[in-house]
Design a protein that fits this description.
By secondary structure, this protein is an alpha/beta fold. It has 2 domains: about 1-150 and about 290-335, Rossmann fold (3-Layer(aba) Sandwich); about 155-285, Phosphofructokinase domain (Rossmann fold), CATH 3.40.50.460. It is about 40% helix and about 15% strand. The strands form 2 sheets. Strands 3-2-1-4-5-10-11 form a 7-stranded mixed beta sheet, sandwiched between helices. The chain is elongated. The structure holds 6-O-phosphono-beta-D-fructofuranose.
Length: about 350
């Protein structure tokens, strides 16, 4: 009997259960039912603490559309993985290796984002057989064109911008919609374009607040009294981007803005007279069912993972590149961030339409 462990790690997103289902169903097919699947609770925490249970076929039924993760998840910072716990004296890496052995696992399937992949790579180097899958609404995992969760979150962010549009036009107000995405602008860029935002601010392109204000004032002079700004949670002004890391940290500590959108609103208020409102959908963007695109993506990634396991092809992540699932070595993925390239055709096309990036 072949034994496969599966865990979901880091922030949740839509599609985790759809991937779990796809991996399991495909494994049962690939191994002609001669496979046992073990659910590892709450990400790496479950592997460390031995919270591992045998799952049955029925556990994987009816979960394609279910949001969140049936396995639970947690954030386990990679930099702490090799640090021995002060209080318990637990050696996390040693525990993960011994639990892998204790439960007789032949490999583990890891669903996660950037932090998760660093740990997946480390475990692979420690001798565990690992296959990973790229999860995150941020779409910032290296080695894949797209991560699952991204399109579903994008749909939600677009829905928010659509709803804001009607109230913004009615009142003639400036609305700042803050979009998640951590340190990258994929979600904001796509949601902003799809939602018809007039200004899109992403971390990759530091904005100049006077230029942003000039766009709003120009629209006003053309009879458009409302403007929509899609602002990434990691958006940064050109002035702040010029600061050293320490200086920026010290500045932020004095500012007390709840998040980026409030900071942009405050900065803008010095240059425009319009009423400004802020909307922060936050974790709403990670909730609910995966969209159709993600369901297909999750199914394909899961099926590919099962094939790799059957072929004993480990130490890799299943990436989606040019519409094909491909194994990407974990050493290539770990520790890298996929940011929006400045020469992205998406940015060029948006600019051609007159969308401002505040640069
Ligand atoms: O990585 C996904 C993400 O939702 C980011 O967009 C966001 O910055 C972060 O997670 C929020 O983390 P948490 O759920 O721990 O608050």
């Amino acid at each position: 009997m072949y034994r496969v462990g599966i865990l979901t790690s880091g922030g949740d997103c839509q599609g985790l259960n759809a991937v779990i289902r796809a991996v399991a169903k495909s494994l049962y097919e690939e191994f002609d039912d001669k496979v046992e699947i073990y659910g590892i609770r709450n990400g790496y925490a479950g592997l460390i603490d031995g919270e591992i249970h045998k799952m049955s076929k029925s556990d994987f039924s009816g979960i394609l559309t279910l949001g969140g993760t049936i396995l639970g998840t947690s954030r386990r910072p990679f930099k702490m993985m090799r640090v021995i716990d002060d209080v318990t004296g637990i050696d996390k890496v040693k525990n993960m290796k011994s639990n892998y052995k204790k439960f007789g696992l032949d490999c583990i399937v890891v669903l996660g984002g950037n932090g998760t992949h660093k740990s997946a790579h480390m475990l692979s180097e420690e001798g565990l057989n690992v296959v990973s899958l790229p999860k995150t609404i941020d779409n910032d995992v290296w080695g894949t064109d797209i991560t699952f969760g991204f399109q579903s979150a994008c749909d939600i962010a677009v829905n928010v911008i659509d709803c804001i549009h009607t109230t913004a036009t009615s009142h003639g107000r400036i609305f700042i919609v803050e979009v998640m995405g951590h340190k990258v602008g994929w979600l904001t860029l796509n949601a902003g374009i799809a939602g018809g935002a007039d200004i899109i601010l992403i971390p990759e392109i530091p904005y100049n607040i006077e230029k942003v204000a000039a766009v709003i004032n120009k629209r006003e002079s053309e009879g458009k009294s409302f403007s929509i700004l899609a602002v990434a949670e990691g958006a940064i002004s050109d002035k702040d981007a010029a600061l050293k890391k320490k200086e920026l940290k010290a500045l932020r500590a004095t500012q007390h803005y709840p998040s980026a959108a409030y900071r942009v609103a405050d900065e803008l208020s010095e240059y425009i007279s319009n009423e400004i409102r802020v909307t922060v959908p936050g974790h709403f963007q990670r909730g609910g069912s995966p969209c159709a695109y993600d369901r297909v993506l999750c199914t394909r990634l899961g099926a590919a993972a099962a094939r790799l396991i059957k072929e004993k092809h480990f130490g890799c992540m299943v990436g989606m590149i040019n519409g094909r699932t491909v194994p990407v070595p974990l050493f290539e993925v770990a520790g890298k961030l996929k940011t929006v390239p400045l020469d992205s055709p998406l940015i060029r096309d948006a600019k051609d339409l007159g969308i401002s990036f505040g640069d």
